[in-house]
Amino acid sequence: MKIEIGAAKREAQGTGASRRLRRAGRVPGIVYGGGETPVMVELDHNELFQGLRKEAFHASILTLNLEGQKQQVLLRAVNMHPYKAQVQHIDFQRVRADEKIHMKVPLHFVDAEVSPAVKLSGALVSHVISELDISCLPADLPEYIEVDLSKIELGDTIHVRDLTLPKGVEAVLSRDENPVVATTSIPKEITAEEEAAAAEAAVPASAVPAGKQPEAPAEAVPAESKKGEK
Asked: Comparing C-alpha atoms, which of 60, 153, 170 is closest to residue 114?
């Protein structure tokens, strides 16, 4: 999937200038790397926010259209407002066709429902990690890596080194590292007693009649209130 996003050069810098940009619906950012000078940029917030909602935007080579000059970049960092749906700042890194890049790409788990573990044993397949750190040339960067679960059996564990990676793609691992990707297990059966206890514990406070709130334990009563009680 080819994704293009527009940007303009940003002249004003500093905290005050960035605040003014955000109020105007713009996002301050920077483009760096590729052996070139870093460039301060600004982007339309709505266009950027919609792009960030796509999985591919985070794990693809993007085309940054900087005032008509197009360059290939990777999303490297995005800062969000603590509680608003607002992008505060964004970083892009230029890529070169002849230099390998390191990226985290999502894992897509497929065909668990037809596996022996699920069909024959009624097991649950747990996804232990959801993305993988890889190294490859920009042209070989996959949008995601597929994890085939169709042959997984009860008791099996899939590790990173068990995965079939696309051509030109390597997992970034130390020599002895081999993280777990997926496991299988039989779901615990809930007894009638456990279900009843859970339902009782889940009764909302609003269901307790007025004036029937639980009394505080004796040790919670301040010592001063006990003085004079004989």
From this structure: 153
